[in-house]
Design goal:
Blueprint: H1 2-39, H2 44-65, H3 70-88, E1 95-98, E2 101-106, E3 111-113, H4 114-130, H5 138-153, H6 158-174, H7 179-198, H8 201-211, H9 222-234, H10 259-292, H11 296-320, H12 338-356
Antiparallel strand pairs: 1-2, 2-3
Length: 359
């Protein structure tokens, strides 16, 4: 059993490192033209990402060495701190307002996207909460999850709100919650989702574009059409590393949400399938670690972290292949962005620590 857990740990570490290093390569590849055009330095984005990768790997090492059981006692302070961060984004002089959204906090030396921290904070708290049997917590669960999601939707950040909802529901299901409660939530979630779309025209337009990619080809559906062009251009084996045409400012968000389109264009179906396989193996091993954890908190925490990574990857990849409406969800470990990379690598460190202490 010990050798099996060591093998699991090694697999998780190698996959996380592979995706991170591959992401660095692709960020440089996808950003060099735009980076030089906007900043006069083709290394602008990759230098940022390397710095964040170093911090993230430091977080991975720290949490690998830090006994995860101590997070049980720290779960409430961590959650409350994350809620404070979600509120601070709206505070003038502290929060950063970019492109119509309040999603970041300026710490002068570092800009934090608070919703990324909230994903992991809520996962840790729910793992601690659900590790103890308790009756009648359905309403408390809805209230807590609702507060976090409402703050994130207000930013606005619908993609992250959906991710947090799916993580919370998955962990609640794993806690042994009765199915009737989930069926009861379906109409409520549907109504709230309808209202979220109704009161934000751009969300309605994204939904319209999802059903008809030929609508408004020069405006609302432009992004989706460019993604599909990149995917189609890749064919079976791709156009080759560095040979993407979409990276020359045709494809919006080519280093962040849409970097998979550049990957698919350059490495084709075969290379893309390998990337998808890496995520699938990471998720499979993550749940295996959860299954073999020696205590309930470790089981829920490992399952929550694995779900966190799986849901983000699934939503990003589905939106990039037109299986879901386009949404601003980064691809874990690969997309440009400091907060997401640091949080995801730190989460991998926790997962490795759970595996290390498993039976």
């Amino acid at each position: 059993m010990r050798s099996g857990m060591k093998r699991n740990s090694l697999l998780v570490l190698l996959i996380a490192l592979f995706l991170t290093i591959f992401g660095l390569f692709m960020i440089y590849d996808a950003s060099s033209y735009v980076s030089f055009k906007d900043f006069g330095d083709k290394y602008h984005y990759i230098k940022d990402q390397i710095s964040w990768a170093v911090i993230g790997l430091s977080g991975l090492i720290f949490f690998y060495l830090f006994d995860y059981k101590k997070l049980y006692l720290l779960s409430l302070p961590i959650l409350l701190f994350s809620i404070v961060l979600l509120i601070l984004v709206f505070l003038p002089g502290v929060g950063v307002y970019i492109l119509g959204a309040h999603r970041w906090i300026n710490f002068k030396f570092f800009i934090l996207q608070s919703s990324e921290f909230a994903k992991l904070a809520l996962t840790i708290f729910l793992a601690a909460w659900f590790s103890n049997r308790e009756k009648g917590r359905f309403l408390a669960f809805l209230l807590l999850t609702g507060i976090v999601i409402a703050l994130i939707i207000a930013e606005p950040d619908m993609g992250t709100a959906i991710i947090i909802l799916l993580i919370a529901l998955t962990m609640y299901f794993l806690s042994g919650a009765p199915l009737r409660q989930f069926f009861g939530m379906v109409p409520v979630v549907a109504i709230l989702g309808f209202l979220a779309v109704k009161f934000e025209p751009y969300r309605a337009q994204r939904l319209t574009t999802f059903f008809d990619t030929n609508a408004s080809p020069q405006t609302y559906s432009y992004h989706v059409r460019q993604i599909l062009i990149a995917l189609g251009s890749g064919g079976l084996t791709g156009v080759g590393f560095g040979n993407s045409l979409q990276k020359y400012a045709y494809l919006p968000e080519s280093t962040t949400d849409s970097i998979f389109a550049i990957i698919a264009e350059e490495v084709g179906f075969v290379g893309s399938a390998l990337i998808l396989g890496a995520y699938a193996l990471l998720v499979l091993v993550g749940f295996r670690i959860a299954e073999r954890a020696k205590d309930s908190f470790g089981k829920f925490l490992a399952a929550g972290i694995t779900t966190l990574i799986a849901v983000q990857a699934l939503i990003n990849l589905a939106s990039q292949t037109a299986l879901l409406p386009l949404t601003g969800v980064p691809l874990p470990f690969i997309s440009y962005g400091g907060s997401a990379l640091i949080v995801n690598l730190s989460a991998i460190g926790i997962l490795l620590n759970i595996s290390k202490q498993s039976k």
